[in-house]
């Protein structure tokens, strides 16, 4: 009996030791959050919205308010020149998840299918009016939002455009919990690289994070340069950054003040994004500019001026970008996204005076299809896995979500009454109001981070 008792005691001690080891391992592994398998995409509680409605937003920390007051970043004719980035992009000759702070923020979760073998497609769905769940925040809570996109502050009288929720088919309903978003992004660096539409998305995500924070004073806005801006949430060691690079390849100003678009080089500043946890690229709009709006005077390749059609130049630039990603980005450390074209609503589908989404599918695409297929083809050819975040169609339906005449002029001031009466001249049907559509882009981005990378959705 004594030997049996001793044996039992030994087994008990061994079990205790094993449990202690497992517990310690769990603590070590927990230093970087894991993403659980998504379950449901269901709307967050009305009680949280009611609590938000009763809670006035706290005043912005002085450093955030000061940064906001100093920041009036409007699109210009061309990006500022930068230093070359060597030969990495040189053309080759062989051609061709979530408790809240004072405001909700999205961390979507949903099932990957409907139980019958059909995959949940986040980008196939419809817009549902859901004023109980949207907007995800109020513009007044985000003092660093640029005046260009704060439409209500610029006098827009309707608020319905803020209250639409994207509902993917077969995915259930959306659920958002701000604290889980913060945990998902803890110790992570997210970088947006591209044009003002990616800046639109960067502002949205920074605001989503900011309004979910328990202590908003523990944030910082850094204007490193006119081309580089950072939002930091110190308590979560999280940063969301924006690099201005509308062509992805380098635009250089020569000594004679002419501008050369170098199809085989990337801007030097892109070295700084290497090692980020998530990088979201985009380009497109600036390639369609003509006449006085075109940013370059000539194209260069291998240091020599070349003549070629816009489609070919666009393709060569994307090939340079794709090679740069393949040579510089470690896919075991960094998730790469390429956000698809953000549609404009001009001409037949004009955004002026629109207050509801398009529902009858009468969409007239404005962006050349050949440029879209060029983007997809180059992403598919990459060795590095890249997720094509195809937000184009769901955004085409949101004819109501642009600033229109509720924006600012180049001096950073809201349009005057007289200017609003000239919508053909002043209506902005390219960018998006915030809160608004880019919040949904970020919902899908955060959701996609919980999925295995795909080449083209």
UniProtKB/TrEMBL annotation:
Pfam families: PC-Esterase (PF13839), PMR5N (PF14416). It is found in: Golgi apparatus membrane. Residues 175-447 form the Trichome birefringence-like C-terminal domain. It is a single-pass type II membrane protein. The keyword Membrane applies. Keywords: Disulfide bond, Glycoprotein, Golgi apparatus, Membrane, Signal-anchor, Transferase, Transmembrane, Transmembrane helix. It comes from the Eukaryota. Residues 77-116 are annotated as: Disordered. Residues 119-171 form the Trichome birefringence-like N-terminal domain. One of its GO terms (cellular component) is Golgi membrane. PANTHER family: OS01G0614300 PROTEIN, PROTEIN TRICHOME BIREFRINGENCE-LIKE 9-RELATED. Belongs to the PC-esterase family. TBL subfamily. This is Trichome birefringence-like N-terminal domain-containing protein. It comes from Lolium multiflorum (Italian ryegrass). The lineage of its organism: Eukaryota, Viridiplantae, Streptophyta, Embryophyta, Tracheophyta.
């Amino acid at each position: 009996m004594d030997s049996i008792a001793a044996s039992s005691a030994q087994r008990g001690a061994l079990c205790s030791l094993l449990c202690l080891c497992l517990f310690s391992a769990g603590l070590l592994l927990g230093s970087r959050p894991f993403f659980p398998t998504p379950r449901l995409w269901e709307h967050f509680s009305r009680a949280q919205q009611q609590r938000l409605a009763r809670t006035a937003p706290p005043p912005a920390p002085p450093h955030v308010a000061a940064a906001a007051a100093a920041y009036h970043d409007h699109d210009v004719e061309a990006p500022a020149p930068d230093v070359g980035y060597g030969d990495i992009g040189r053309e080759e000759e062989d051609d061709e998840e979530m408790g809240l702070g004072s405001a909700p923020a999205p961390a979507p979760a949903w099932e990957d299918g409907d139980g019958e073998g059909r995959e949940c497609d986040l980008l196939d769905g419809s817009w549902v009016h859901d004023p109980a769940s949207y907007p995800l925040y109020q513009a007044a809570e985000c003092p660093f939002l640029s005046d260009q996109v704060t439409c209500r502050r610029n006098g827009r009288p309707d608020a319905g455009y803020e209250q639409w929720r994207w509902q993917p088919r077969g995915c259930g309903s959306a659920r958002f919990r701000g604290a889980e978003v913060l945990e998902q992004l803890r110790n992570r660096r997210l970088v947006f690289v591209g044009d003002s539409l990616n800046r639109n998305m960067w502002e949205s995500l920074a605001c989503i994070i900011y309004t979910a924070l328990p202590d908003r004073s523990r944030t910082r806005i850094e204007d490193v340069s006119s081309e580089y801006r950072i939002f930091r949430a110190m308590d979560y060691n999280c940063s969301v950054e924006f690099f201005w690079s509308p062509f992805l390849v380098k635009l250089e100003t020569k000594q004679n003040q002419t501008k050369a678009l170098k199809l085989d080089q990337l801007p030097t500043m892109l070295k700084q994004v290497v090692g980020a946890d998530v990088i979201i690229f985009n380009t497109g709009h600036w390639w369609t500019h003509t006449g006085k709006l075109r940013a370059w005077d000539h194209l260069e390749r291998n240091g020599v001026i070349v003549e070629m059609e816009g489609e070919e130049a666009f393709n060569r630039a994307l090939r340079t970008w794709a090679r740069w990603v393949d040579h510089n980005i470690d896919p075991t450390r960094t998730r790469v996204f390429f956000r698809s074209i953000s549609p404009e609503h001009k001409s037949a589908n004009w955004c002026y005076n629109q207050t509801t989404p398009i529902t009858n599918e009468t969409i007239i695409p404005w962006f050349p299809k050949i440029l879209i297929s060029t983007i997809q083809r180059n992403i598919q050819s990459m060795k590095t896995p890249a997720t094509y975040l195809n937000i184009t169609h769901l955004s085409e339906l949101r004819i109501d979500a642009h600033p229109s005449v509720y924006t600012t002029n180049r001096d950073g001031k809201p349009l005057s009454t007289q200017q609003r009466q000239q919508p053909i001249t002043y209506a902005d049907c390219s960018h998006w109001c915030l809160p608004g559509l880019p919040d949904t882009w970020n919902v899908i981005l955060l959701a996609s981070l919980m999925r295995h990378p795909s080449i083209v959705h």
